[in-house]
Amino acid sequence: MTTQIMAIKGKKEIWLQLADVRPIPLNVSPEEETRCREAERLVNSLWDKWMRQFAENGSSQEVLARVEFRFAQL
To answer: How are beta strands 24-28 and 12-16 bridged, if at all?
Structure first.
């Protein structure tokens, strides 16, 4: 039934992998997928960089919170 509803709305399910948390499912239109994938890439890129920078002083979740805060500022 979920697949039928998604097909009617023209949406598809994608999975985003952000940092080291479980993959996140999203239902998006084909036009939104590109933006979501780009956001995924940017978040992971900054998270990777800051994990190296703050490795001894912060947990993975703390670094992810810093990344979230930075994107919220934008």
So the answer is: antiparallel
DSSP helix, strand, coil percent of the chain (3-state; round to 5): 60, 15, 25
- Each residue's pLDDT tens digit, 33-58: 999 999 999 999 999 999 999 878 77
Crossing angle for the helix pair 60-73 and 30-53, nearest 10 degrees?
A: 120
Which tokens sit at 49?
């960089």
Residue 18 in 3-state DSSP? coil
Dist CA 48 CA 14 (whole Å)? 22
Is 11 within 8 Å of 28 (Cβ atoms)?
yes
Inform me whether the pLDDT recorded for 21 exceeds 90: yes
Task: Write down the mean pLDDT value for the chain.
Answer: 89
